[in-house]
Design a protein that fits this description.
The chain is α/β, with parallel strands linked by helices. The chain has 15 helices and 13 strands. The two termini are 28 Å apart. InterPro entries: Amidase, Amidase_CS, Amidase_dom, AS_sf.
Length: 474
Amino acid sequence: MTPDRAAGLAETRRALAEGEVTSRASVADALARIEATQPTLNAFRIVRAEAALAEAEAADRELAAGGRRPLLGVPVAVKDDMDVAGEPTAFGCSGEFPPAAEDGEAVRRLRAAGAVIVGKTNTCELGQWPFTEGPAFGETRNPWDTAYTPGGSSGGSAAAVAAGLVPAALGSDGAGSVRIPASWTHLIGIKPQRGRISTWPRGESFHGITVNGTLARTVADAALLLDAASGNHERDPHRPPALTVADAVGRDPGRLRVALALKPPFTAVPARLHPEIRARVVELAERMAGLGHVVEEADPPYGQIGLAFLPRATAGIAERAREAPDPALLDPRTREAARLGRLLGGAPLRAARRAEAVLHRRIGTFFRSYDVILAPTTATPPPRIGAFQKLGGMATDRAIIAACPYAWPWNVLGWPGVNVPAGFVGPGLPVGAQLLGPADSEPLLVSLAAQLEAELRWHERWPPGHRTESAKAG
């Protein structure tokens, strides 16, 4: 680790507990890194500099008095779709949003664990797209090459962690929005079981397809943040049994049956897996086989799962669009999606919700033959900044489906998935692979991811510097 980059979550926690560093110094360093990179990366929508320093000083007093909490004094960031008391929750939109009256449940739990929230990270408008750009905040860029997107919609959280601005961050995942940016920035991204991390004050986000998840450089850090944020509000409709996921790091996963699923789920838009990404994922499968796992090509019986996704996604956009202070400021593509959501929000939405139980049974049978699915996270490497800027709604939908056809089925199912780095393609752009499992399989997926990490040491590789088009041209 170079001196200008953040230590990991677990390492920062240890250093704080042992008095090697103060929370104020750690938070001040994070704030300095954020300020220095905002002109190039633009990872943050809101930086809580004054409040975060005050909270860090309070954490130092608690540490000095012998207090110990899971993340006491550690700086972290959260995506700007989560309520932080006193801050607006704009969710990528333009307009004047009121400050939140209280923390959302996930943020409340992070604070209860002692974390210091240094800021809220950028996300595209209402989290719809796998890029993080918009008129409300500009373009968030990829630390591996600033000519490219870090992905979306949790692109700000991914950029912040990949660049070492913070050791870990929360994002949310409604169609891959944690896993996609994790894959394109060389991170671990955990999309947990629905309800594992509360989305309250919304009992369900986007009719249950969106969950909160974690981004970090190592499996241990992503699992540690997951455990700290996990838990439910008393009115949450989804309350999975409690798990301590961090305990699975370093645990032998045993000899697993792994399905290598390279075929994209059926969509109305053709999607082709980039040959270099295919090669990286196959290489990862070969490493798994070398570790003793049984790997064979097999695709889950997805069927027409897309019919269970679209009504939930667009009806959710319609609901969020109504909350915007000035709907006229929304992207025309958002308004178009909201109109569709209003049309699909009745009987089609109810049918989509009913289909989930059928899909659970059908795809659940696949896990009688296999323990884990290994699949690409995306079909393409990260696109360039601005690649989608001038596209209309239909053209944008076609482009993002072609780029990212692999992640969204697990949002319909509500089951866990973990992105792991799969290597690099082209001019050194990161790509990833998904480990996918059935309900409540986070410990198994984390155990396997940690085993791969110990073998491949992906966390030791950092972005080579914040390259820009002008710098490369020069």
